[in-house]
Amino acid sequence: xxxxxxxxxxxxxxxxxxxxxxxxxxxxxxxxxxxxxxxxxxxxxxxxxxxxxxxxxxxxxxxxxxxxxxxxxxxxxxxxxxxxxxxxxxxxxxxxxxxxxxxxxxxxxxxxxxxxxxxxxxxxxxxxxxxxxxxxxxxxxxxxxxxxxxxxxxxxxxxxxxxxxxxxxxxxxxxxxxxxxxxxxxxxxxxxxxxxxxxxxxxxxxxxxxxxxxxxxxxxxxxxxxxxxxxxxxxxxxxxxxxxxxxxxxxxxxxxxxxxxxxxxxxxxxxxxxxxxxxxxxxxxxxxxxxxxxxxxxxxxxxxxxxxxxxxxxxxxxxxxxxxxxxxxxxxxxxxxxxxxxxxxxxxxxxxxxxxxxxxxxxxxxxxxx
Length: 370
What we know:
By secondary structure, the protein is mainly alpha-helical. The protein has one domain (2-364). 66% of the residues lie in helices and 3% in strands. The protein is built from twelve helices and four strands, in the order βαααββαααααααααβ. A hairpin with a 2-residue loop joins strand 2 (105-107) and strand 3 (110-112).
């Protein structure tokens, strides 16, 4: 049994979310104003688009916070959301390509990236499945349906192609299976199959191999594949301890590609220095702590898995983005949650946070004896 206490949501996680949102608004404007002026003749173009995405996401978050029933345990909602995500992922391949990839669906001029929604729907599904089948997780025939679903989603995202998101989705699902009680022996076999699949896709495209090569030896082709990592580290290094001050970044002036999306952390490091980057890293660590704490206190096993899965998904994505910016990993094309420009990522991230905060309002209640 559980008790729903409105407005008793975790204030620490909420404050961290608001702070990251504010930092994101500031950095999107700072890093994109010059580009927006040249492309759209309006320096606030990307900033306004980010505000729109955040407004939709905040609206969803507020609505989810008010829902009394644990909707993330409702089979109709879970399978409906998963079917919608699968349909939208498939629809990407009949949409016009954008920069030679099929990652978005366009509906009446609105562009949405279904892989962002897929992260949430898979967490809901796996949490529900693992609670329903918790006494039979040692049987391969029981594990085959979720493995097939994970494989289908991963393959569709790989085919877009979006290697980084596909890898992130698989890691999140693997962690969900582990937290849900699946045996390590089964996870090891699944991991071996996944390594083979990802290896095939890695070596099937020359640009992915070049990214790995530039990560291993970035100095060999600084003007080619190593250009972006080099410029990113240059931005971080030039920031020093306190940064060059807000708006004074040089790397955003067409030296660093994707300055307002995948590499916004580099511009933040240049303008706010080591102090700024450590602050943001500390906020994500705080987010991880509060999210896992909410999960550990959730009244049901399903709620625990949902809270932990969504928290880990957001934080792992953040840490992967930061490692790429610092040159500690090859480029993956993952945005920094709540900070990078991207309406689909913003809406779905705030939706996920709304679910975590909703779970934080649920307290366990002992059943009274007659």
